[in-house]
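>> received
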Amino acid sequence: MISSIHIKNLKSHKNTNIKLNNITLLCGENGSGKSSLIQSLLLLRQSFQKNRLDKVLSLNKPLCYIGEGKDVLFSFTEDDETIKIEFNYQKNIYQWIFDVGKGLTLDFIPYDKSNTTIYSNDELSTIPLFNNLFQYISARRLAEYESDDYAVDIEKQISLEEGRAELTAHFLDFYRETKVLDGLLHPSINDNSLIEQVTAWEQEISKGVKVYPKKVGDSYEIRYSFPSEFGETERYTTKNVGFGLSYALPVIVAILSAQPNTLLIIENPEAHLHPYGQAKIAELMSLAAQAGIQIIAETHSDHIINGVLVQNKKSVIDTENIKIWYFDREEEHNASKVTEVELIGKGRIKKAPAGFFDQIGKDLRILMSTNPS
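>> returned
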């Protein structure tokens, strides 16, 4: 498990150091650095995928598109034009330092050779960030499915580019009979196959729905049916059902297909879901984290945060397996300011930082006041 990340001079991060856990939730206002922290890991992975991480940091495709060196450098670096990305994996520190000054107008940044250790591909391949025990599901995920035999069969990936989850249908059809970890099984059915478990968890989003992946020509599609008093409905395309089903599907598939030590990076798991559905996704994420799957999730939803806290209260996930970080900005230099939201167990927070999902309290005070002005 990656237990910490330290990034310096990368986008809004002047000097950010956070600890991670089995489940790490990143929350806070827009533009405060949550996505940039995730991008620091994606940049390393895509550079490794291109076999370039022993030379440069590749800024564009397939996982994220940053632009040029000047676009990745913190704006107020003074005389320091290097960026650092560092993480701790199984008590080993891995650190990369790149000289942006030599790549300001390039789509890659070369190493600062005087300060950087070059790691072998064999060594890095043991880390989930760089191998097949990894999935990235972004907020850009769309129900426009594609097919790629090598990416699905050999690399075991749900996404090709930008975490769009475009291989979800192909992946689900190919691994439909794969056995899901016991700790993740939905209590409503005894069948532990991936396809049946995905259907069971999707039914928490929409009652009675059934999920059908299918090969169509050279590609794949997902269709959904629903129960009625006359039996099962027709099988509808993703364009003819609610957005929540297709947005939740890759999240559910990624979690249920994961093994212990897998690293999942998920943006906005709550997208297009009603509150109960968000709470059930939080439950599934908590079960996975307790089973040894590492999840880093960016969220804007108090239902996701509270959902994980509820699972902590119910002893589904241990307090020591959860980290919550609140992102804000230090206005003088527009730098990310990151505060840990400390937990004291049984679903309780020690002290919430200012701005931490406090809007509902503000709204209620106005609604209950006799003087709303």
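>> The chain has ten helices and 19 strands.
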